[in-house]
Every structure is written in structure tokens, then in C-alpha cells.
Known about the structure:
Helix 5 packs across helix 7, helix 9 packs parallel to helix 10 (307-320) and helix 19 (605-616) runs antiparallel to helix 20. Helices cover 39% and strands 18% of the residues. The two termini are 31 Å apart. By secondary structure, the protein is of the alpha/beta class. Strand 8 (119-121) and strand 9 form a beta hairpin. It folds into four domains: 45-151, CATH 2.40.50.140; 181-250 and 662-700, no CATH class; 260-450, Rossmann fold (3-Layer(aba) Sandwich); 461-617, P-loop containing nucleotide triphosphate hydrolases (Rossmann fold), CATH 3.40.50.300. The protein has a seven-stranded mixed sheet, with no helix packed on it. A seven-stranded parallel sheet has the order 14-15-13-16-17-12-18, with helices on both faces. It has a six-stranded parallel sheet with strand order 19-24-23-20-22-21, with helices on both faces. The chain binds adenosine-5'-diphosphate (ADP) and magnesium ion.
Amino acid sequence: MNLDTPLVYVKGVGPFRAEMLEAKGVSTVNDLLHYPPFRYEDRTNLKAIGRLAPGEMATVIVDVREARLPKMGRKNLGMFEAVFGDASGRTLTGKWFHGAYLANVLVEGQRVALYGKVEFDTYKGDLMMMHPEFEILSADDEEGDSSLHTGRMVPIYEAAGKVTAKQLRVIVHRVLASIAPLDDFLPATLREQLKMPTRWDAIRALHAPPEDSDIRLLNAFRSPAHIRMIFEEFFWLECGLALKRNKARTVEGVRFDLNDRVREKIKAMLPFKPTGAQKRVLGEIARDMAEPHPMNRLVQGDVGSGKTLVAAEAAIVAIENGYQVAVLAPTEILVAQHFAYFKNLFHKLGYVVAILAGSFKPKEKEKIRMLIEQGLAHVVVGTHALLEEEVKFKKLGLAIVDEQHRFGVMQRLKLMEKGAVKPDVLVMTATPIPRTLALTIYGDLDTSVIDELPPGRRPIVTKHVMSSRVEEVWSFVAREVANGRQAYVVYPVIEESETTALKAAEKMFLELRDTIFPKLRIGLLHGKLAQSDKEAVMAEFKAGRIDVLVSTTVIEVGVDVPNATVMVIEQAERFGLAQLHQLRGRVGRGGNQSYCILVTEKLGETARDRIRTMTESNDGFHIAEMDLRLRGPGEFFGTKQSGLPTLRFANIIRDSELLEVARNEAHAFIANPPSEDIFRRAVHYIRENWQRRYGLVQVG
Length: 700
Ligand code: ADP
Ligand code: MG
């Protein structure tokens, strides 16, 4: 047996179980060893039932005294009950709703381990556990040695289909007993310096914790073995990313010249004085652009922080050096808006700005493609349509990608192939994420943060209103409009039911126009409108000829109308945090006090957390962090798109401080490896393991 042995060949697995393990991504011996327990039970010094206290989480080993499906009159409610006892003479009842299936599982006379929260059943005057986890210890289902399951620190695995935690324990035990000790690829000096166990010791301790282990450390994933494996996972990931970045630094790109003439042009373009943060970030960008290698920079900035202005400055640097600039945005509305923004800023400099969107007629597209190909357009703003093969640039020097989280990493790369040489790439995102996290998710990008809002902004006031009191919201909107302001009213679009949301928006539009605000000018905007119609509606709103704009979430990103001061979000419970924050960012863009009103039905628990986060905070970083916590990293980033690796031991949120350490060590190691030999071994290991597993890390 070695690490690559398929599990089917391990005694006690067989094709049926192998298939279920495979579904969990566990196919080989190596995978199994990297399938960590999610919890541990200390079954060494067990309490007797008589010594349990209500409120505590406890494990007990007990006998089944009675097992039954109690009836209420003639009806069986599907509740399963079992009475357990032990030598203390006391009993404890376990209850399972919808537990009918247990009638054939838990039977009188069995010995079981129970784990759960101890409660006091005042009705019966006895101790009980609701839905305790249990493991049958007496059954002899070819699981041999009972000393594996009792009298020690017992690892609890997540069941894989029908393969139970107990069976997994047996299989892992067999594997550990029959394979050769694992090699350790982590540099020994590093391991000693950080006082970490070897890989083999760590893996064994995870699956079979030594007697003197601290159960609290185990369950907090902070035992020495856990720390070692978490560290290692981060370390290799960060090494891979560092190697990838180093390699990018050897690629040839454009060296832009930032001379006085360019500075003059920028000055002539600026409509206002940049903030300190904008200046600093432009400095970082300019330094990259002056390098002979392609820039790969991510600019993070909360909504309204003025990212577009910085992008425009970078564009001038490229154009004045004789290059073209591509601006990629995720929606046609945003593209239209960027187009207007850049045209407005650049017309005094004599630049030609073009726009290309998927919904354009073939003739139009053809015309614009010619402009691009002949180099007559200096700036081209577009959606995905810009990425199509037929679009050829004469001399692309800078690609700006707005709202990165909407685009896959692949698309970013595709854009880079568009120039004769690799263009500089500037990515802008309004989904700020904690720094270390950004460095890992966007590990191959350098990052800049615009952490300052333009002057004179007042924090947006956010309120939660139940839909039964929506009348008050409408009177408030009417008052703001009477003061010369404008408002948005947004309806959620949930992917599968865009038409439903559309209907809701249309219905509301009619109601607002005809009944609620008969004297106001109401507009309607949604994704199904033709591009030209969308542009027309936005232009009307921007020009102040629409008072209240009813919209689906097409306005989520980027729309900029400083006179709008009210954002009403209907059915706000259906939006995610990031989306709510984005939507809120559409107001508060001018000097007037702005408001965001979240209208909801009755709330569930997580929805309540989201709404509370919104009413308590205006800080995009804080909100992103809450979002990450509430949803977990996978869903937050949409793993596939982001290239976020699947980690087996580590958790980017829980273990962020270890990530920081691993990152520093990885950089030191790559920059200054202890020896050529150790370095080569490490690179080989990364290539063999990480490249295949995560795709993200492409080395060499
Ligand atoms: P975002 O970072 O959300 O893309 P924008 O670039 O759309 O933000 O800018 C938000 C608003 O702030 C715009 O109306 C823009 O013109 C304005 N703005 C940007 N920079 C400044 C500045 N330095 N001073 C005043 N207003 C600014
Ligand atoms: Mg923007």
C-alpha cells in the first residue's frame, strides 16, 4: 500500500464504499489521510449520567434500556425516543423528531456513545438530549477492535454517504498501520524554527490523537498537528503564488514614460482635486507602468471612493505614450456610463472614445471594430463583447477591468492576449476584502487600496422598514423629491425568475406612477430593455428629468447620479450583503444627506443579521468581512470563478493569522532558499501536488 493506492484496494472498503468516498473527493490513500476529522470526543474519562449537568455538551457511554415510537392517541408523530442508562443508576432520554427510521437502528441492549447537549426535561423530571449524535459500540459490524472507539480521544469524521464516522475511523486506522512514514517536504529549518511536528507525526496525531492531547485545542483546530497542517497548506499555496508572480516579472511588457507632458494632460483633465488616497494609488500604478513588465494591479475601493478617476489618469499615461486603452465592465448600463464618463473627461484632450456592447447590430460592431483595429479609437469601453476574437487592437497598452468579481480570471487573461506585447492590466473592485485574503485570492496581483472617500460625503443613513409600513417610505420619498432630490426603488432579480422580478418592478412602476406619485416623473429600468433604451432612461435620470427610477438590479454596479439621495430596496431580505452595499453605494455621491431604506417582510435569522449589518455599518470592508463570515469563502467568491483553492485543513477566515505567517515564510523561502537542492525539491512538490489539485498555482 502506498499513497497512490486507490481506496477500493484497502481492506474493508470495497467498490460500494469507495464510490461514496470518491463522491467526497476521497479516492486514494493520500486523499484519505487528508480527510481530517471535524471534531474529537474525549472518551477517556467519561462522566456517568448521574454527574451530567444541564446545559453542557457531553459524551456518555450508555446502554439502550428502551426504544420506542411514542403515540399520541392513535397517531404516531414520527418522534423516536430511547431511554439510556449506565452504572450510576440514572437514566437519560434521547429524542429524535422524524426519527422513525431509528426504530431498526437503536435497539434494547446495545451499548452506544452519545454526544449532545444535556437538557432537563421538566415534564418528565429527567435528563435528555435532543437529536444527540450516537455511535453503536456493541454491534459487531466487522469493525473489530472496540479500543478504537472508546477509552481514547476519538476522531469524528463527516460521514461519506453511507460510510459512517465509525467505519472511517477503522479504515484510517488500517491505512496508518500499513503505510510507510510520509516524507516531509517542508524545509527542516523552518519546521524546527516554528517548533512544528513532522508531517508524519502530524497526520497520525490528527487521526489518532495521543493520550495527553488537549481536547480543547483539538476541537479548536489548534493542536500542534493542526497548526502544522494548516501552516503547510498555506505555505505551499503562497510559495506557488510567489513563483507565479516571479515568473510574471520576467515577461516583457510596455515601459510607459511618465513625463511632464503626460502630467500636464492629467492636470488638464482632472475635474476636481484627487483625494490623498487617489494620489497614492495613482503613484503605485504609475510606478508599475514605468516598469518593463506588464502591470497586474488590483485597486480595491469602497463604492464611491472614486476608482474611475484613477483609471482615467492611468489611461492618459497609456494614450500619451501612443497606446490604446480597453475598459471592460460587466453590464451594458455600466459600460454606457463609463463611456459617458470617459468621453466627458477626455474630449478636451482630443481623445476618441468608442463603445462596444453585445447588443449592438453587426453593422455597428463592424464599424467600431475597424476604429479599434486602425488605432483610431484611443479608449474602447465594452462588455464581454470586447473579448471576442474578431476584436483586434492596433496597439493595446492598458486594459482596465471594472468590478472584477463579475469576471472570471480566464477573461482577464484573454484580454492580455489582445496586444502585440502584453498590456498592463488594472483591475478595479468594489468588493473590498481583508488584506491577507486579497493577497491570497488575487495572489498574482499587486493590490492598492483607495481608503478615503471624496471630501464632503456624509455617511448614508440606513433604515429598516417592514413592508406593512411602506406608506411612510413613500411620503419620505415625496419629501426628498420636493426638495429637488431623486430616488431609486429597486426590486431583486433572482436569477431563475428574472421575469417575476420584472413583473413586480413593472407593476410597482405603474402603481407609483398612477396612484402613489401621480405628480412625479417615474422611470423604469430593467435588464430586458434594449441598450439604447437603457441609455436613454439613465440619461433622463441623470439629467434630472426623472424623479423616481424604478429598477431591477441592473443598476447594482457603478451607476453614478450625485443628485439621487434615496435608495429604497424592496424585498431586501432577498439580497446578499455585498449586493445591498453595492446598491446603497448608488446614493451618497453628492453633498446631500442620503438614505437607504431596506423594506422587508418578516425576517429569518440570517436575513436579520444581514439587515442589521447594513443598518449598523457603512464600511465596505466590515461588510465584506461579515458577508464572508455569514456565507463562507466558497460561496462568497464563487470558488470556480475566483480561482480560490479548496483547502483541506485550513480555513481562510478562521486561520487568517497563520496565513499571514505562512505567507511571510513562503516569501522568505522563495527569495532565499536554504539550498538549491531544497528549493528544487519544493518546486517539484508544488508542481506535483498543488498544480493538479488547485489549478491556481501554475509554476514553470
Ligand atoms: P467608484 O469607486 O464607486 O467607481 P466613482 O469613480 O464612480 O466611484 O466616483 C464616485 C463619485 O465621486 C463620482 O461622482 C465621481 O465623479 C466623484 N469623485 C471621484 N473622485 C473625486 C474627488 N477627488 N473629489 C470629488 N469627487 C470625486
Ligand atoms: Mg465604479
